Amino acid sequence: MFLIYVAYFLLIKSIFVHSELFTSTTHLTHLLNTEIELSKQLETYLKKEYERLDQVEKFLNVIKDEIRQAQGNGDYYFGNPVNAYLFIKHLTVDWYTVEETVSVEISKTMGDNWLFPSFEDYTGSAVGLMRLQDTYKLNTSDIANGEISSNFKSRKLSALECYDLGRIAYTSGDFYHTLMWMQEALDHLNTEPNNTAVNKINILDHLAYATSQQGNVEHALAVTEQILSLDPDHVRARNNKDHYEELIRNKRLTAGDDAPTLDLFPAMDKLDKIDIKNQRPQDYLEERERYEQLCRQNESKLDPKRAAKLFCRYRHNNHPYLLLRPAKEEQLLDQPALYLFHDIISDKDIEEVKRLASPRLQRAIVRDSGSGTFKAAEYRT
Amino acid sequence: MFLIYVAYFLLIKSIFVHSELFTSTTHLTHLLNTEIELSKQLETYLKKEYERLDQVEKFLNVIKDEIRQAQGNGDYYFGNPVNAYLFIKHLTVDWYTVEETVSVEISKTMGDNWLFPSFEDYTGSAVGLMRLQDTYKLNTSDIANGEISSNFKSRKLSALECYDLGRIAYTSGDFYHTLMWMQEALDHLNTEPNNTAVNKINILDHLAYATSQQGNVEHALAVTEQILSLDPDHVRARNNKDHYEELIRNKRLTAGDDAPTLDLFPAMDKLDKIDIKNQRPQDYLEERERYEQLCRQNESKLDPKRAAKLFCRYRHNNHPYLLLRPAKEEQLLDQPALYLFHDIISDKDIEEVKRLASPRLQRAIVRDSGSGTFKAAEYRT
């Protein structure tokens, strides 16, 4: 046994003849601690890296799906304002977030040939979406669920996306739309279990402020109570609660004794019963209402008696060319007279005109009625 | 139809009222190209990143497996010189490679508390492994297949690991071991389909040089022919081929007409029939052979007649203490007399002595017979 031990000992020793630092199994066992620490560090590193790449991959899948739907079909796809809004969002705020987690500067390596939309384009597309909502009197839920009409389908928006839209309205002081979209965000959040992308308190916080600005003090109080039930130490909510209670008390005093002596607490229970006002702010443009009516109008609304008087004809006006090949005229409206001429320009020529014109598209400018200078009008493209 | 088109047109336009750059579906369709390019760039980026992390994860799995086997079992695990070599390799060359692909400087963030072995430790452990191979006359294949003995099992080495061992021998001019390990690398490569970690030509190149240095010109020629069959334009192989052929021709001329007129071409076919010499280089240390014999010796070889004369006894030498508790003496050898005393120090005390001593372990130094100065000896630990 002893000799075997000696042999074993020599065997261990003899392998480290060159080594200066680590000449024994004792030293190797000490080094094993280095390896254990290293494996822990590497494991943490890998976990973080995979999480990071997972975020990038999720974004990649979103835009690949978008490309698949829009490619070769751009006019139809981007004709849906929800798609257009999401598309601009992906190339602005979402991409800014993803690029921060990508170690290579992809935007830069892509070079200057590739234009990216600006943050202003992003807010612009959101505000445009909301104006459209007013013009066509669209239900917020219908937009958020991708059901504007049977012709315009888009995917359902997430609670976070509804919240983002509400945030944009909020930032520009548009509490009318903030109220709609924060309420929508809240509804979507209830159908998204395990949602961690958006905080319910943040939604409620914006909702409370917007609804108070729209004059719903009781509703604001009820929402604030809801914040406090989730986070009893929420400082602003506590202060606001006192403020709203004070407002309600003053209102009752003004209303006199006739007002019902409503017990406010707990207001949360009555959330469903509160009648929420949400008045669209008065517009400075007088023609707005008629303009929007026109947009909503379609031919099916034309009085059948009037429609019966409209007809199609071949027109030549005795012009020699038109005698040979008369123009196809269709009367669309009598008052004002509105005609549609068919087959004047070939499809090929139309495409060519569009091709030549599209790079020169610019925003329309109008003369300001006050100063007389030309400027871009918010209501025009 | 026309009015619907007007409505559709207004609908598209009205959503981009704020946007300066991208106000039409035409522009959005152009932007789609940006998104397509972005998705391509991101896809390439993700692919590269996943490949990079895959390399790190493979390394992590190797060291985790090593830790699992060695932890709490260090003396036994590192007692196997193959394990010790691989362990040092993982914490040196392999880790250097992995760390280059890790964006965070993990070694630095781990701080100074964690020692890493040096590259010298790595080559030292490899040279030690080869010396052990000589001392115990171990078969290269047995080591490479993890079967040194029934007590010392380790995992099978890859072709790359055999090649790395051969490279270390080659770099230190040790063609005796280069020949063994390159031959072994070649054998392992044949059992590893789709191996891309090591290039067969690289192995053959080293093998040809080593075998020529060991005096096997015919073998060197055959191996060189094999390189040329894989890569007919291999410049060094073409030059070496001419050189080896010249050597063989000269040798025959010296040997005279008695030598068989062997047709050299193609030598490859005769690769199996060539008798390969591999003489261990002469050692400057006279005692080497006896020292190694001693290492290989074990008690079973002791002459039974001599062994019969060895016995155990209680020894007290009339010392009062030892009269009360005599020492347990076991005679191991008669000539020279070698005794083993049992139970002199308790196991606990042994551990304490080892614990105190191990931090002070240093390499043994010997007086140089030539210069008379003290220096570290290669053959001592």
UniProtKB/TrEMBL annotation, chains A, B:
Keyword annotations of the record: Signal, TPR repeat
Domain Prolyl 4-hydroxylase peptide-substrate-binding: 161-249
Signal peptide, first to last residue: 1-19
GO annotations of cellular component type: endoplasmic reticulum
Annotated SUPFAM superfamilies: TPR-like
Gene Ontology terms for molecular function: procollagen-proline 4-dioxygenase activity
Species for this entry: Adineta steineri
Protein name (database record): Prolyl 4-hydroxylase alpha-subunit N-terminal domain-containing protein
Domain Prolyl 4-hydroxylase N-terminal residue range list: 24-149
Pfam families noted in UniProt: P4Ha_N, TPR_P4H
Residue windows of the TPR repeats: 201-234
Classification via InterPro entries: P4H_N (IPR013547), TPR-like_helical_dom_sf (IPR011990), TPR_P4H (IPR059068), TPR_rpt (IPR019734)
